[in-house]
Design goal:
Elements: H1 12-31, H2 35-48, E1 52-53, H3 54-60, E2 69-74, E3 78-83, E4 93-99, E5 104-115, E6 118-126, E7 139-146, E8 152-157, H4 184-187, E9 195-198, H5 215-228, E10 238-244, E11 249-251, E12 257-260, H6 263-278, E13 285-291, H7 308-319, H8 325-333, E14 336-340, E15 343-344, E16 366-369, H9 385-397, E17 402-404, H10 419-423, E18 428-433, E19 435-437, E20 444-447, H11 448-464
Parallel strand pairs: 1-2, 4-13, 4-14, 14-18, 15-19, 16-17
Antiparallel strand pairs: 2-3, 3-13, 5-6, 5-10, 6-9, 7-8, 7-10, 11-12, 12-20, 16-18, 19-20
Length: 466
């Protein structure tokens, strides 16, 4: 089925709305480069739209009713929003789910060391990356340092014009004859992704004859103490993430695309959030859940495998009419979900990896993947035909441009999302999202038209799916 490039169908007012959505999206990408930053931003935006903390509502004993809006946060790294509908909760919800973690490089718990008068931070990469893409580019440091007394210190170094940046070095081409013979996965080894953190030794009195040992490391520690009141031991209780430094930018002479870090999967997360905050006329309770850890298997307390979502739904049921395990199970089983994650956009430079008839294309709208997985659909949720028919009806009714695709050729590779986890409740789930070029690279590319169609499609799903 041939899908049209959607740029040709927009009226002037639609183009204006498209730019507004994309400007907001770029600002969110800049403000949310880590899962903690995404959650803080989500809560701030939700409060502006009248959402209240579910914990605070519970304390008052207030019963929730149609039209009420609440949110819940898990460990500052996952968040869920609910807009109560006119139908009973046990009839099911319309759920948008996406992940807010992205491939990156993490700082280890005992990271700071000196080698030949360079101070380094030892690292461990997070998620699926091509390691060679992360060398010789400007990098920033984001995260938190938590002191023993519970004080949380925010860290964001490398994003402001006046900030220093960091780098992981690469071997100069003049000496790289042996390196260039290696396979791509071995050109840069994981243990060589350490970050240069400084090179200036600490000042010492001229009268001291004995040279200070590890003087560069000591200078770094002195700087950390001055600006963050941080001791070396505090690295143990810190979460520091290394990400590309720089803002989201318009891509192309025609400004039709966006180049930015973390669009997998924040392009789906933020468009889902925008749709949730703008949705009106809600019949079935609307839900938007943004979770952590998808890139490493959705594990842990803040990943989709945790009980956070299920427990929060139970709390919601209790506040909407009294505790009932059966109602909780019905609410989950009768729900419908868009598991929103990016799809691989067809790249003519690497066309041999795609099956063109089943590929996702730039500027052809929201992408639906009936299944993902690999090696014979392994690890995927395979959506049923009845649900696909309902989705087609909703999207066509609201004039949303969409396409159906698979993730590359059958034996070329594959990938997964959180869809199969939520399908365990018995709800209808399908993968949907935005086609992205350079997925999992430090800088990824998306089409502004697809960002806008995703927003439209997610909003239509929340308002119209029955």
């Amino acid at each position: 089925m041939e899908r049209k490039n959607v740029w040709g169908v927009y009226a002037p007012e639609a183009l204006q709305k498209l730019e507004e959505v994309n400007d907001l999206y770029k600002s969110c990408l800049d403000a949310g480069k880590t899962e903690r930053e995404c959650v803080a931003l989500t809560v701030s935006m939700a409060k502006e739209k009248g959402y209240r903390d579910l914990k605070e509502v519970e304390k008052t004993g207030e019963a929730l009713k149609a039209g009420d809006k609440v949110y819940a946060v898990c460990m500052d790294k996952a968040v869920v929003l609910f807009h109560i509908g006119t139908e009973p909760l046990e009839n099911g919800m319309n759920i948008l789910g996406a992940h807010i973690d992205s491939p990156r490089i993490d700082v280890k718990q005992n990271p700071l060391y000196e080698n030949e008068e360079f101070a380094y931070l030892d690292t461990h990469y997070y998620g699926g990356i091509k390691k060679y893409q992360w060398v010789a580019i400007p990098l920033a440091l984001h995260g938190v340092i938590v002191k023993k007394d519970g004080t949380v210190i925010q860290v964001n170094i490398g994003e402001k014009e006046e900030d220093p940046v960091f780098v992981i070095t690469d071997l100069l081409v003049h000496l790289a004859a042996e390196q260039m013979e290696k396979k791509a996965k071995a050109v840069i080894e994981g243990e060589k992704l350490d970050l240069i953190f400084g090179s200036r030794p600490i000042e010492q009195e001229e009268s001291l004859e004995k040279k200070e040992k590890e003087a560069v490391k000591k200078n770094v520690l002195a700087i950390l103490k001055r600006y963050y009141d941080m001791e070396e031991e505090d690295f143990v209780s810190a979460e520091l993430e290394i990400v590309p430094a720089g803002r989201a930018r318009d891509l192309g002479i025609d400004r039709s695309m966006i180049l930015a870090y973390g669009q997998d999967d924040r392009v789906c997360a933020f468009t889902s959030l925008f749709a949730m905050l703008d949705a009106g006329g809600i019949k079935r309770t609307a839900c938007c859940i943004l979770v952590d850890k998808e890139e490493i298997g959705s594990v842990g307390a803040t990943g989709m495998h945790s009980r956070f979502f299920e427990n929060t739904v139970a709390e919601l049921v209790a506040l909407c009419g009294g505790e009932s395990e059966l109602k909780v199970r019905k609410a989950l089983q009768n729900s419908r979900m868009l598991s929103s994650d990016v799809s691989a956009a067809y790249d003519p430079m690497f066309g041999e990896c795609f099956e063109k008839r089943s590929a996702a294309f730039f500027s052809k709208g929201l992408v639906f993947n009936k299944f993902t997985g690999s090696r014979g659909k392994g690890g995927s949720n395979d959506a049923n035909a009845e649900y696909l028919a309902k989705l087609r009806s909703v999207m066509d009714k609201k004039e949303v441009s969409y396409q159906f695709a698979e993730l590359g050729k059958v034996d070329a590779g594959g990938g997964g999302t959180i869809a199969y986890i939520m399908a365990n409740y018995g709800m209808e789930v399908i993968d949907s999202g935005v086609a992205v070029l350079c997925m999992h690279a430090p800088w990824e590319a998306s089409s502004k038209a697809d960002v806008y169609e995703a927003y439209k499609g997610y909003k239509a799903f929340l308002e119209e799916m029955e």
